Amino acid sequence: MIRNSAAEMAAKLNAGEITSVELTQLHLDRIAAVDTDVHAFLFVNNEGALAQAAEVDVKRAAGEKMSPLAGVPLALKDVMTQKGVPTTCGSKILEGWRPPYDSTVVTNLKKNGIVILGKTNMDEFAMGSSTENSAYGPTHNPWDLSRIPGGSGGGSSAALAAFEAPLAIGTDTGGSIRQPAAVTGTVGVKPTYGGVSRFGLVAFSSSLDQAGPCARTVLDAALLHEAIAGHDPKDSTSINAPVPQVVAAAKSGDVKGMKIGVVKELNGEGYQNGVRIRFEESLELLAAAGAEIVEVSAPNFEYALAAYYLIAPSECSSNLARFDAMRYGLRVGDVDGASAESVMNLTREVGFGREVKRRIILGTYALSSGYYDAYYGSAQKVRTLITQDFNKAFEKCDVMVSPTCPTTAFKIGEKSNDPIAMYLNDIATIPVNMAGIGGMSLPAGLAPEDGLPVGFQIMAPAMQDDRMYLVGAALEAALLSKWGAPLLSKIPALAGA
Hints:
protein biosynthesis; glutaminyl-tRNA synthase (glutamine-hydrolyzing); 497 residues; glutaminyl-tRNA synthase (glutamine-hydrolyzing) activity; single chain; Amidase signature (AS) enzymes; ATP-binding; alpha/beta; nucleotide-binding
């Protein structure tokens, strides 16, 4: 049962073949059996999840109209607030904090009857590409427990790949949904910026952060996308417009006549050979499905990584200033005679990890007097150029595509002492965040040299997220026909699900 898609689970729930309590318990048992090895979860809410599930069962038995995913379990990235449930953002500085309110995403999940199993591990404050920066230890990739599951949302993606949950929520600032999806053989979507509310999402970089769905199939992602999206007056950046018809698109998968633009600048040197092989194979399958493959150029993508690592740290240095040991969270050095400044300094020294401190320092410098225009201001100009590149390219195609990541999952510890090498993992995903458009990663198969998953990235114009699901569904169907079974059925580790 736990290997079924979320849509299949929902069908069985509606048919009375299983109750939500039974389905939730199956997943809680799976977590208990394998998460010691995977470490996808920071907190498992056994009691709360079963109570949610029981409530859904009562409503269904009473004949109430249920939402499409009612009763299906989900794993929640620990950067979203959930009332009364520990929320750490993978940081010691928030250890023990239980928010007094739900994020809008959590409110929408509850409204749709989706059962929240617990909170998943992540790079501290979503800063990282490997989930090695968590203050609570790294998450392991179920394909190979010695490898990373991507970041910052590695806990959510690993939970999906290990069959600990059929659905998950992630957040994506520079690739933190899509990159973990790519290296774990799952599906991850960054909706258009403003398409899903950020209220209750603990901010890293406010102009880049975006919550989105994580799943094992394109249709499951679409169903979850529809459940959490929509305008929210609590979020000033929320778009007041209808949610794109993502579920209809995922059920259609018809790409006949669509123009798919291959980004020249994201398909060159530096990509693992197996990644390139699977990417080219996916293009051939889309062409066979009736799409036209064209090449597009985005020359300013070359500067996206550098601009991102000025904008994101600058915004993080401002956002993380609220963690001052005065209002909530960790408090160190509070003894008689200690000044507020001393307590604040000691708390931040102990509470923040190395990568968070690095980015705060970078951002504070970039915003400092005399440097603002040279660094942060210039990076924002590059951001405008990247957006213009997208606009020009979309005049020639309906969606743009690239490999999601340059390589498959690397070994835990392999790049932890080389920040530049780590940052380069997001080279293909960052442009999407800079422009605020939608992006999706779905499995394109296994790299022949190491047998690990490869991701295929689809990018669509703002508020045209349904285009990603059309192309994603078409490619997924073609690849499933080629493989003969879901990619995750080939996973060598953690057998027995």
